[in-house]
Structures are given as C-alpha cells and as structure tokens.
Amino acid sequence: MSIRQLKVSGVRNLQPLEITPHAGVNFIYGDNGCGKTSILEAIALMASGKSFRTTKIQHVLNHEADRIEMFLEVDDEERGVCTMDSLRLKNGDTLLKLNGSVLTSQAEAAHWLPVQIIDPNTFKLLSGSPEERRQFIDWGVFHVEHKFMEQWKTFRKQLKQRNAVLKQKELEWLPTWTAGFIESAEVIDQHRQAYLKRFKPEFEKILSQLDESIDVQLAYYRGWDKDTPLVDVLEKQQERDLVIGYTQSGPHRAELRIKVGKLPAAEILSRGQQKTVVSALKIAQGALFQQESQRRTIYLVDDLASELDEKHRHALCKLLESLDCQVFITSIDKEKLTDVWQPSASKMFHVEQGVIVEE
Ligand SMILES: Nc1ncnc2c1ncn2[C@@H]1O[C@H](COP(=O)(O)OP(=O)(O)OP(=O)(O)O)[C@@H](O)[C@H]1O
Ligand SMILES: [Mg+2]
C-alpha cells in the first residue's frame, strides 16, 4: 500500500496541500512549528479517525477552518489504485468514502489504510495503560483476520449487557449473558494468543537487528488466570461483580507484559532503548502484516532523531528500507535524515510555515 497523491486542507497550520509522495521514502524537513508532524497527523487521522497527539479532533482543525478535507489516491496490493475521501466537520460529523462510495465505519477506512506510527511519544506503548498494548495486539489481529472486527463488536456488546445486568442485579438474566460473554471472550482470546505466537519470533528477530544488547520478553496475560476456565473465574467473582456492577475478568483486562527479566521494561530501559523496543514492536507488526496479507503498511516516523543516536537511527532506517514499504519521515535538519540513510527510492519535501514544497 502506498499513497500516490495526498490532498489536505483544514489541518493545524497547514496551507491546503497537494503532494505526490514517493512509493518509497519521503523525507520531510523544516524548522520547529512549521507543520511536519501535522502532515503525518493528517494521514493518521484518515487511517484511524484519531490523532496521535490529541484526543480532541477539534484541536487538529485549523483555527480558522470549519472542516478538514482530505483526498488520497492509494495503490493497494489487493485492490489496486483507489481513492479515499474524508470530510470532518467542526461538530464531529464525518463522511468517509472509498472510490466514491460511502464507508459505513472508520474501521473500513483503517482496513484500507494500514499505518504504523513511530513518534517521540511512542514509548507510551511501554509505559502507558494496558489499553494501549491491547490496541496494539488488536491492530495486528484486525488487519489479518477479516472477521475480527465483528467478533470484537459482539464481545463489547456482551460485556456491556453483562455489566448492565450486574448493575441492575437482574439475577435471572445473569446466566444467559454470562454464557454469551464467555463464548465471545474466548474467540477474542484465541485470536490474540494465536497472533502473539506468530508475532513473538518476528519481534525478537527485528529487535536483535536494531540492538542486540536489549533483552526484553513479551508475556501475554489474557485477562483472567491462565490455568482456570473463564466460567470458573466468573463464578468465583460473581458476588464481587454484583457489588461493583462490573465484570472484573475477561479480554477487556488483557495485557501484553513487556519485561526485562522480571521487571517492567518501561521502568528499566533508557528512553532511547524504549524507543528502540517500541520501534521493533511496530516494525515487527508491519513485517508480519506484510507476510500474512501480502499487503504493506505505511510508516509514519515523526522526528526520527529524537532519543536515537546515529547507530540506532541507521539500524532503524535500514530495517524500514528492507521492508520495502512507503515511509514518511520527518526531521528538523535535512542532515539528520540523510547522514545515515540515502535510500535509492526517495523524495525530499521542505516545509516552511505550513507550506510544503517538493525539492
Ligand atoms: N488548530 C490549529 N490551527 C492553526 N495552527 C495550529 C493549530 N494547532 C497547532 N497549530 C500550529 O501549527 C503548527 C503545527 O506544528 P507541528 O507540530 O506540525 O510542527 P513541526 O514542524 O512538527 O514542529 P517540531 O519540529 O517542533 O516538531 C505549530 O506552529 C502550532 O502552533
Ligand atoms: Mg513535530
């Protein structure tokens, strides 16, 4: 998958832009505050409906604009050349289109625009809440298992219903919803387990290519005790669940534990090492996606130089190049991009006060 044409208006300080990116590497450089991150943010917004900088999409909207409009022409390995349009109004209303036909959900857009982001906040994947790591696993499952989104929605519905029943103390309904909850919980858990089994060796390989000296282990916690069937766990916890009005155990409590020895990696590793580990997680995810779907993910790498020394920058860039996918990579200095990396297939863009120009 690569973006062949990108049009954006109404995002942050960016002037309406229109660029034709390279299918390989796209270097974007410019001074602080010129709008580099905003360009990546716009692509991420199209892909996920979210910004990686803020939970409030209104903050992404240019102060003077009333809408964000985007148009992408993409070349997909499965679908060929297609167009994607999005319109986001100030009040939150959103319209997404693929080849001119309205998409009914953001998940559909996410399917057609697989994107991985490596940015200065990326270490939050280690130090942030378990939710971030659950979402990480689920990205991997979602992009290879076509049924996963529906199954995930079913699970959320079952969880919501069971919680409502617990809150209302409707004991006569509890066994029915508990049975439904268990059934859908097991489906989610099996997908995640199977994914992580395939993911782990890929991650270990990539991490050793980035830095052989970092030794971290991934351990999956499914959200309830690994040796006890969920039905028994729920039975044991039923009394407490009824008091708090909430299901304490299940896939909504799953966690990917990332450790150095017995300790959380986020509390042991330096910032640079954390960035390396997270980059390895994301590159491994992209690589696995590529192997399993025959499609390629797009990498958005914001502020490459932050936290990484020259050796690690070089290793990261080489790995990205070996994946042969489209990369958008930003830096303040042109030199910090090109000192370590001169890929054969690339374009250079300069941004100045919200205006992007191809060099
Ligand atoms: N909603 C908005 N409307 C207009 N301008 C905005 C809005 N939000 C942020 N800005 C401005 O837009 C610019 C966005 O900069 P951005 O973060 O993309 O810069 P950058 O090139 O990535 O800088 P840095 O090198 O510091 O990371 C900043 O100057 C910021 O003050
Ligand atoms: Mg920036």
UniProtKB/TrEMBL annotation:
Record-annotated RecF/RecN/SMC N-terminal domain positions: 3-355
Residues involved in ATP binding: 30-37
Gene3D superfamilies xref list: P-loop containing nucleotide triphosphate hydrolases (3.40.50.300), RecF/RecN/SMC, N-terminal domain (1.20.1050.90)
This protein's UniProt keywords: ATP-binding, Cytoplasm, DNA damage, DNA repair, DNA replication, DNA-binding, Nucleotide-binding, SOS response
Cell location: Cytoplasm
Recorded superkingdom: Bacteria
Function: The RecF protein is involved in DNA metabolism; it is required for DNA replication and normal SOS inducibility. RecF binds preferentially to single-stranded, linear DNA. It also seems to bind ATP.
NCBIfam families: recf
Family: Belongs to the RecF family.
Family annotation (PANTHER family): DNA REPLICATION AND REPAIR PROTEIN RECF
Protein name: DNA replication and repair protein RecF
Taxonomic source organism: Bacterioplanoides pacificum
Gene: recF
